[in-house]
Amino acid sequence: MTLKSFLGSVLRPVLGWAFFDVTRENESMRIVLLGAPGSGKGTQAKKLMADRNIPQVSTGDMLREAVASGTRFGLKAKSVMDAGNLVPDEVVLGIISERLAQADAENGFILDGFPRTTQQAIDLEELLDEMETPLDTAVLMDVDFDILVKRLTGRRTCSRTGKLLNVYFSPQEELDAVTAAGGELVQREDDNEATIRNRLDVYRENTEPLIDFYRKRRKLVKIDAEGSIDEVYERLLEALSS
Ligand code: AMP
């Protein structure tokens, strides 16, 4: 246990997280969130982004924006994404290198959904070496397979507010409130059962090897990502402080 994590475990219950946020204000935080689709990477990345003022960089979100813009590239990406397959490595590397060069990523970033292949992890390592800003930590978000499937098949977005809900886990009042207010519970196009099965297979085959990749580099920390969003977030902060 390092001095920092020891002090953290002793003082955190007394002083709360705010103290640690102040002490770590000037620290950079360059992290990768690793985990299967449905492990909650996007949700946790958004919370961390709001708390630490560093951007969430989600290749999935950026690709969905490209699809929505209707460009030729977007149309090509859409068919790959709808099937739950991976967009070519060189395409996502191009997107990522442009994004990480932007000013708001200077003090850190939370990579969500990238890297997804060993080649992407090697490319990222080279890119960060060139920028002289090495990665700090890769956090593996661990969730049982059956829960992943329910999180993905049950995931819905309110068409009015964009709020994320789940037909299996959200309180019934919250689900009812969406329709009562005239909204609809919309399912992401790649959240249907066939695509989900493929996305999970693609994860196992292409992305799971990254666990060893980062373990060998002593950058890996694993957290239990089951439970409420706040419980998982607390575990994430604890993992990042150790
Ligand atoms: P996500 O929102 O992270 O689940 O990503 C949605 C889809 O975008 C994936 O199923 C892939 O088709 C594509 N995608 C996102 N990130 C990557 C990546 N790093 N490499 C290849 N394809 C990606």
Q: Which runs of at least 5 residues are low in confidence (pLDDT < 50)?
A: 17-26
CATH architecture designation:
3-Layer(aba) Sandwich
CA-CA gap between termini: 8 Å
Radius of gyration (Å):
18 Å
* Class by alpha and beta content: alpha/beta
H and E order: HHEHEHHHEHEHEEHEHHEH
* Proportion of strand residues: 5-15%
Can you count the beta strands?
8
Query: Given the structure, what is the number of helices?
Result: 12
In this entry the ligands are: adenosine monophosphate
Helix coverage percent? 40-55%
CATH class: Alpha Beta
Question: Domains counted in the coordinates: how many?
Answer: 1
* Sheet with the most strands: spatial strand order: 2-3-1-4-8
Major beta sheet, specifics?
Answer: 5 strands, parallel
Fourth CATH level, the homologous superfamily: P-loop containing nucleotide triphosphate hydrolases
Please, what is the average pLDDT?
Answer: 90
Q: What best-fitting shape do the alpha-carbon axes yield?
A: globular
Task: Annotate the secondary structure layout.
Blueprint: H1 3-15, H2 17-23, E1 29-34, H3 41-52, E2 56-58, H4 59-69, H5 72-82, H6 89-100, E3 108-112, H7 118-130, E4 137-142, H8 145-153, E5 155-158, E6 164-166, H9 172-180, E7 185-186, H10 193-207, H11 209-216, E8 220-224, H12 229-241
Parallel strand pairs: 1-3, 1-4, 2-3, 4-8
Antiparallel strand pairs: 5-6, 5-7
This protein binds adenosine monophosphate (AMP).
Structural notes for this entry:
The chain is an alpha/beta fold. The chain has a single domain, classed as P-loop containing nucleotide triphosphate hydrolases (Rossmann fold, 3-Layer(aba) Sandwich), CATH 3.40.50.300. Helices cover 55% and strands 14% of the residues. It has 12 helices and 8 strands. The chain has a 5-stranded parallel β-sheet, sandwiched between helices. Strand 5 and strand 6 form a beta hairpin. Helix 3 crosses helix 12 and helix 4 crosses helix 5. The protein is globular and about 50 Å long. The chain starts with a helix and ends with a helix. The structure holds adenosine monophosphate. The site of adenosine monophosphate (AMP) has 17 residues, from helix 4 and helix 5.
